Amino acid sequence: MRFPTRTAHECPRAWLALLAAVLISVMALLLAPAPAQATSGDDLSWSVKPGGDTARTNFSYEMDAGGTQHDSFVVTNLGAKAFKLAVYAADGTTSTTGALDLLPATEASTGIGAWVTVETPTIELAPGAQADVPFTVAVPADAEPGDYVGGLLSSYVDIANGGTVQVDRRLATRMNVRVAGDGRVSMALSQLAASTGLAWNPFAPVPGSVAFEITNSGNVRARGPYTVTMAGPFGWGKRTTTIASAELIPGGSAAVATSLEGVWPLGWLTTTVEMSPEGIDGVPGTAATITTDGWAVPWGQFGLLAVIVAAAICIGLWRGRSAKKELP
Questions:
Q1: Most confident among 13-27, 149-163, 216-230 (mean pLDDT)
Q2: Strand duo 222-231 + 267-275: pairing
Q3: What is the 3-state secondary structure (H, E, C) of 170-193?
Q4: Hey, which bits of the chain come out as E strands?
């Protein structure tokens, strides 16, 4: 059997064609569209606010353990039909992004949600009517010092699909209670992971991606800037960005994802996150740092090197054959 032969100058073309095919496939995956998300409307309309002082946007108290505080919650029907609302307090929690949320009515509270007693737990409002709902905050005598976060809620439970589905529509006003005592500002960093984009172009840097988790390990609300650094061996190609973090309640966590442009994959990549936390009153805390190392493969440079080596081999073979033909 006879196989087709290839001349020396065809070798580099084969290498370049292979690299081009891989690059086109990767770009097609990266540019694939994401699915859209839909939202639904709501025909009910009401508003809530703290009672008394119209300048307040939330409830905020500084109290001693064992102390009590009396206040009120104003609810207004802005719609065209009457409805009933449940009024209650709930503890605050955080979503995966660190945003404040409130526990559902089916989950027991141990902080603010357990300390608040509402005078009228159920109210009925005619169109345009307003209710001023009194309540009392009673801090237990054995409450630990620090910040407690929750909210006072108005809730309308909508039963749909013949009673098989319940939708709890809630509107709340935030409540902050600081129990007197020693405050501790502390943030912990964990679950650090870093990666870089595919470095197909040997003459251009790539974006770097960093993900980690921030946890408020102190007993007061805290925030603070964090600095993300990516660098190659000996600090070569160092890239840095600093971002201000949102407030986190005690015990709350937030998953953070950020990116750095212009990262050169130089084989070995060191990623560091540093945070300087401070309380919402500006009191500084202890700095936190976390570091991880990993490979950042310069595929583009390897590909270019492979093309150069292949070209050199092909040229060498061609010259060798030419020299043999010239021999007598």
A1: 216-230
A2: antiparallel
A3: EEEEEEEEEECCCCCCCEEEEEEE
A4: 46-50, 59-63, 68-77, 83-94, 100-102, 116-118, 122-125, 130-138, 146-160, 165-179, 187-196, 206-216, 222-231, 239-248, 253-263, 267-275, 278-279, 288-296
Ordered alpha helix ranges (H), 78-191 = 112-115
Q: Parallel, antiparallel, or unpaired for β 59-63 and 165-179?
A: parallel
CA dihedral 48, 50, 53, 59 (to 10 degrees): -140
CA angle 214–269–300, rounded 5-degree value: 130
Round the CA-based radius of gyration of the chain to a whole number and report it: 31
| Rounded Cα–Cα distance for residues 27 and 304 (Å) | 19
Q: Domains, the chain, ranges and CATH?
A: 46-179 (2.60.40.2310), 185-304 (2.60.40.10)
> How many residues make up the chain in this entry?
328
In the structure, what pLDDT confidence band is assigned to residue 304 with cuts at 50, 70 and 90? Answer: low
- Calpha distance 38→276 (Å, rounded): 39
Q: In sequence order, what DSSP letters do the residues of 246-296 get, joined into one string?
A: EEE-TT-EEEEEEEEEEE---EEEEEEEEE--EETTS-B---EEEEEEEEE
What do you get for the CA distance between the two ends of the chain, in Å? 31
CA distances from 206 to 113, 200, 261, 265 (A): 48, 9, 7, 8
Measuring CA to CA, how many Å separate 195 from each of 22, 257, 269? Answer: 20, 11, 9
Retrieve residue 95's tokens: 């979503």
In the prediction, which pLDDT does 93 show? Answer: 94
Alpha carbon distance 23, 29 (integer Å): 10
- Band the pLDDT of 301: cuts 50, 70, 90: low
Cβ–Cβ < 8 Å for 307, 15: yes
- Angle between helix 299-326 and 11-30 (nearest 10): 160
pLDDT tens digits along 142-183: 999 999 999 999 999 887 655 666 788 999 999 999 999 999
